[in-house]
Amino acid sequence: MMKLAPLVLLLPMFTAAAQTFDTSGNGMLNGTYYYREVIYLFGDQAADLSRAIALYGNLSFNGNGGFTMTNVTVVDSSAGVLQQVAATTTGTYSISASGLGFITIPIFGGYNVYGLVSQQGIFVGSATEAGINDLLIAAPLASPAPTNASFKGTYSIAALDLSSGSPLTSVNYQYQLNPDGAGNLGTVSITGYIGEGGSQVLTQTLSAQKYSFSNGGCNLAFPTTNASNAYFINSGQKFLYISPDGNFVFGGSPGSWDMFVGVKNSSATPTFGGLYYEAGIDENASPLASGYALPDTYYGSLNANGGLIADHQRTLGNPQISPAPYGGTYSDAYTLKSNGTYSNGLMNYVVGPGGTVRIGSGIGPFLGINVALAAPTLTPGSGVYLSPTGVLNAASFAPFTSGIAPGELLTLFGTNLAPALQVASSVPLITNLGGVEVTFSGLPAPIYYVSPTQISVIVPYAVTGATAQVQVIDNGTASNTVTMFVNKTAPGVFTQNGSGLGYGAVTHADGSLVTPASPAKIGETVIAYLTGLGAVTPLVPDGAAGVVSQTTNTTAVDISGVTATVAYAGLAPGSAALYQINFVVPTGLTAGDNTLDIQGPDSYAAQTLISVSTSSVAAGGADPLVRAGRPRPAGPTNPKSR
């Protein structure tokens, strides 16, 4: 085998960024793991590939921040041959108490793959911050190692393959495996989509298929075929890896650049709820008629509860168009069928036994795969304890991976945070309330209220850097430290029901709420109240009442994808940490409930609804800032959303 050294000359140097990070969760990765990573490098704005790379083999974690890559094979489209990493190649990793962290892959110059460790010890992530479109999955090798006899039941599989090089011929497909414990898969029926085929469903059938295990890995003996209907599987075998509990599988071709994820089908209706960690790959092929597709890769987390989902994804699109990653928060709904499936129109989902695994497969022309895994159960400490997943936007309650922004109002969750409930009596807010303090990388934060299980604080405007260390001090006793990503913006719209989902806190000019009974009209200027728009000018002191002070970050609004003109985006006069956006309801909307989307330079929020009437207001006189004699800044153009 060729050694890996020549590859360093072929791939740009992806340098791993240095930063302060909590490593108290390093023990979550320990032992031998099977892993697979696919990397797609896009060569133009049309999303044609210039290069594809797959890596697979073993990662041996020591539980203390170090690992060894063993038997790792590299499949590189530009090299033309399989290459193997030397068994002595070592790397490092940093995992926080929540399971959020990064693995530094020590090849190609070194790069960080950010992601999360699930309840089952499975790591899923993507190298978004390094400007790399990829998906990495690593799962512990079971002991004893799985065999033919232990692999049986019914598994739903979702697969994505962009390795043809053109979005026109990218494929996304799903199928079931029925291993019988004796090496037989039987007939495999496949359905899926091809990029240029849009929403057309294609089918393929493979008969009398076999499988075999060796050293804990499985070889699916799919045939090499040139049949006319070989739309999806036509390149021979696939390698499959399985989680220790047998409920999750993943893998791909040993000589190509595809990836599949799978889940064991539940024998009873599974539950689905709580916090999940996720990663995936998308390719929106709907613009292909215009000559391009929209790919992206991501990692993040979601909260599922009572049929509603609040989802955050840290995403990298095509670097040829958008080289910087961004965070997006979204709302979704689900109604789980008795077989564990549901669909949202963009993806078909399958939830496995106990609700610990959910996989997703795209619905053409929206190609993609997604895996979501139950987050680990965190045990509170005996003293002052700040939940590692409990630093949340006070308006949207978006999952903790969405990070924080200067000036944002947060709600912190934990135990023994304060002796009793106490609420600030005046503005400006103080940084010591009832003996309780909160710091962000050592900077004191203004506090609105404290209680034993919740604290409301404002992120100091002076917080900088990629991460911040959040800590609560209760009368001299310090909590654990929680690492949070720092963004320019992290918008979250307040909601009328206080949940972060549903109808946004949007008012008419007279201060009355926009509701289904009193919808916003076309041409009307309405006001959305939110937090997380970041730095403002003129700057106000931390915790002070807001004035007419605009955000320094470009802010855009759209309603169900239709751009709205922004009249003002900044602090709400008279309140601490409350922002408002005044915007004009655009034409081209459908009457009824619409999604309200807020765009910052590094973030996107689409969790809330606004009720709209297609009747129009009279021209002029609808903008409260204009009537008050205040300046009306021009609104930015809303970029294409994910």
Give a verbal description of the structure.
With 642 residues, the chain is mostly beta strands. The chain has 3 domains: 1-377, no CATH class; 385-485, Sandwich (Immunoglobulin-like), CATH 2.60.40.10; 492-627, no CATH class. The strands form 6 sheets. The chain has an 18-stranded mixed β-sheet that branches. The longest helix has 4 residues, at 624-627. The two termini are 41 Å apart. The model is unreliable at 1-18 and 620-642 (pLDDT under 50).
Write the layout of secondary structure elements.
Layout: E1 30-42, E2 49-62, E3 66-76, E4 82-84, E5 90-95, E6 100-105, E7 111-117, E8 123-126, E9 133-140, E10 155-161, E11 171-177, E12 184-194, E13 202-214, E14 217-220, E15 238-242, E16 248-252, E17 259-264, E18 274-284, E19 294-305, E20 308-317, E21 326-333, E22 341-343, E23 347-351, E24 357-363, E25 366-374, E26 385-393, E27 409-415, E28 422-423, E29 436-440, E30 443-444, E31 447-450, E32 454-458, E33 467-474, E34 477-478, E35 482-485, E36 492-493, E37 502-503, E38 506-507, E39 520-522, E40 525-531, E41 536-537, E42 550-551, E43 556-559, E44 562-571, E45 579-584, E46 592-599, E47 603-616, H1 624-627
Parallel strand pairs: 21-47, 37-47, 39-47
Antiparallel strand pairs: 1-2, 1-9, 2-3, 3-4, 3-5, 5-6, 6-7, 7-8, 8-9, 10-11, 10-17, 11-12, 12-13, 13-14, 14-15, 15-16, 16-17, 18-19, 18-25, 19-20, 20-21, 22-23, 23-24, 24-25, 26-27, 27-32, 28-31, 29-30, 29-33, 31-32, 33-34, 33-35, 36-40, 38-40, 40-45, 41-42, 43-44, 43-46, 44-45, 46-47
